[in-house]
Each structure stands twice: as structure tokens, then as C-alpha cells.
User: What shape does this take?
Amino acid sequence: MKTISTRRRTSGAILGASALALTAFFSAPAHAAQDATCGVLAPGASATAQAAVDAACSQIGVWYSWGGGHAATPGASYGFYDGSDPDSLHDGERKGFDCSGLMRYAYYRATGKDLLNGTADDQFHTPQASARFSAGQGTAPLLPGDLMFWGSGHIHHVAMYLGGGQMVEAYESGTHIRVTSVRTGGDYAGAVRINGSGTPVPPPAN
Assistant: This one.
């Protein structure tokens, strides 16, 4: 009897833990707490760029979701399966952003204008750029709020520079928006400084 009771308790604990794990897996935070390591980490950025950094950092911990952030109004939205990555199968249940959706939202919040509606490739070629930097220049000329891009021939990823060799990004399905060290190797394609102006949009109500 003691053995049966122990097995029942163990099974119950496992089932309970599994239920909690599934809940956490599919649920996006109702409101993301800003990471203390995410923010403007170097001087020189415009007020608009600083506001964009703050907006991006406010989403730390929110799900990456393929196609997320591309609804009619910039902001977190449910994504969808990308057709190839198994980690993307549940993106339709994850409210969040893909890489370009996060950049779109950040500059919308900073300017009140939907300046960056489109893919990372669209953002790389945006007419809203006030300066462009080649891959060979590295991070030396970059300021917080500059957008960093990756891709050879076609741009497939974008992140936001914070300063101090750090950036904030929505990386890939199955992960959350995060701060990480910059990557200037591989297919790093360079950076763009956004020439945004307008009235900042207040954070959405919970």
C-alpha cells in the first residue's frame, strides 16, 4: 500500500508539473517587466532613438512569434507557422513579435508614426534612414536605437543596438525577446539610423 501511495503522489506531482509547464509554454506575459540590463547603454542617441530603445526593452520576456507585430496597429500579435521550423508550430498560440515586428513597434511608440511597417529586408531599405553603416565599420559608429541587420543578398534579421556592445532582439521561434551581445560576424550586413519624428505613443493599457 505504501508503494502504491508513493507512486500516486509521484504521478500526481509529475502531472501537476507538466500542466504548469504547458501553461507557461503557451502563455505570453500580460505585461513584460523591463530587464535591468536593457536600456540606453551609451550617450549620443536622439530623444526619439532613446524612446525606441525604451519601447523595445519594455517587451523583454515576450514571446518571439513568426509574423507577430504585423497587425494593422503595431504591437504584440499572434503569429503563425513559418512552414519549415518545428519550433514555429505553436507561434499561432504565442502573442508576441518577430524581429521586424519588434522594431516596427519600438519606433511607432517613439514617434507616433508607423515608419517601419514591413519585413527586416524592407526596414534595411527604408527611406526613413538618416545614416547607413557598412558591416566593415562594426559597432564603432553606432548609437543606441540604430538597427542592425543580417543577411546576404536578402535581409532576414534585425535587432536594435543599445550601446556597450549589446542589442535587444526577437531572435527565433521558441525564444523570448532578449538582450544579447552584438554579432558582427557571419552575414552581418550593416546598420541603419532611423530619422524619426513625431509624438510618442503612450504604452498600451493592460
Q: What stands out?
A: Residues 133 and 191 are 5 Å apart (CA to CA). DSSP finds four helices and nine strands in the chain. The radius of gyration is 19 Å. Strands lie at 63-64, 77-78, 95-97, 129-133, 147-150, 157-163, 166-169, 178-181, 188-194.
